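Problem: given the chain below (193 residues), write out its structure.
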Amino acid sequence: PGADWKDFVPPNMRGDVGRTLPHRTTLTDNFNRADEANLTGWTELPSGPYDPGFSVVSNQVEFEYNHPSVQRNVVARYDSDLSSDDHSAEFTTAAESVNSTFRSIASRISDSALTCYEGGYTRNSGIGRMWKWVSGTPTQIGTTNTSAFTHPFVVKMSSDGSTQTLTVDGNELLSITDSSITGNVRCGIGSGY
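Solution.
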C-alpha cells in the first residue's frame, strides 16, 4: 500500500499542510554573457536629455555616462513581473571608475513609465539617498550620511506596504514611510553621476 503523507512531514510542520503559502518570485540576472551595448531583458528609463546607458562588459553591468557636468540618474527596469508590489531588489557593486558615481536599486517600477522608489549610495561620500519618481519627475524623500563601504558591497531596496527601506551590506541607511506608489511589480537597477 501507499505511504501516508504524515510519514514525510515532521510533526512540528503538520499544521502547515493544506495551508496556502505566500507566493514568492525570485528573478536574477548575473550578466554572465557576451558583451552587449544594451541590457537584454531590461528597459532603460533615462531621466533627461542625455541618454546614458547600461551595457554588459566582461560579464558585468557597466554604466556609461559622458556628460559629467550634468547630474543625471537613469533606471533600468527588469522586464519581468514579481508576484507582489511588496518586494525587494538588490545588487552587488564592483569597483567604480568614478568615485562619485551613485549606485542604486529600484522597487515598484511601473511597466509603462519612470515611476518607482529608488534608493542608492555614493561610496566616496558615504551618502545614502532615496527618491520617489512619478512619471519621470524625481523627488528626494530621504538622505543620510554614513561611513564608506568597501567594494564589493550589496545595495538593497525594499518596499513593504508603506515602508521603503534602503540597506547597504545589511546596514539600514534609510527607512521612509511613503505609500504613494503601489501596484507596480517590477524592479531594477540605477546609476547616476
